[in-house]
Amino acid sequence: MMRGIDPLSHQPKVSQTKQQSAAVRPKKEGAQASDTVEISQGAQSVAELTELAESTPAQSKANLDGVREKVQSGFYNTPEALENMANAMIESDVLQDAVSEIAQFQTAKGQLSEVPDVRAEEVERTRQLVGSGFYNQRQALEGAADGMIDEIV
Question: Per residue in 33-60, is it b (16+ CB within 10 Å) or e — as a string?
Fold first, then answer.
């Protein structure tokens, strides 16, 4: 469902030059000082970004071309360039966060490896509960069934 005003895609496009020259035309009869036009925030953003893209100096293209040439020539494969890139990555916050997460994972993995596959004390406790008739109670049976269902799902 479309909301709002039809974007008027069927209307002829008017260049900025024509729009600017239209702004200096004398007012027509019937136009009032209280007539206003509001431009949406999205349209303003698009206009600002378009202006910024068009005002980007030619130097940026030259810089980009220079980087392309260096990549193709193998400049960045030198030990010095590789060391500079590695140092920049090491100092970045993103890498520091990843290293911290890996360290936490390794710690948890080490702790998990210390837990035996079969915990003898739990097996013995469960045997005692079975022997005492604990699992014959309705509440215990429902709890055990719910636990099994939760593990399956």
Answer: eeeeeeeeeeeeeeeeeeeeeeeeeeee
Between the alpha carbon of residue 4 and those of residues 11, 40, 43, 44, 105, the distances in Å are 17, 12, 14, 17, 50
Write the pLDDT tens digit of every residue in 2-40: 454 545 444 444 444 444 444 455 555 655 667 777 788
pLDDT tens for 101-122 read 999 999 999 998 888 888 888 8
Q: Which of 40, 32, 36, 31 is nearest to 5 (CA)?
A: 40
d(CA 65, CA 68): 5
**Which single residue is written with the structure tokens 């010095």?**
80
Please spell the DSSP secondary structure of 81-138, one letter per residue.
HHHHHHHHHHHSHHHHHHHHHHHHHHHHHHHHHTS-SS-HHHHHHHHHHHHHTGGGSH
DSSP-derived secondary structure for 23-92: HTSPPPTT--TT------HHHHHHHHHHHHHHH--HHHHHHHHHHHHHHHHTGGGSHHHHHHHHHHHHHS
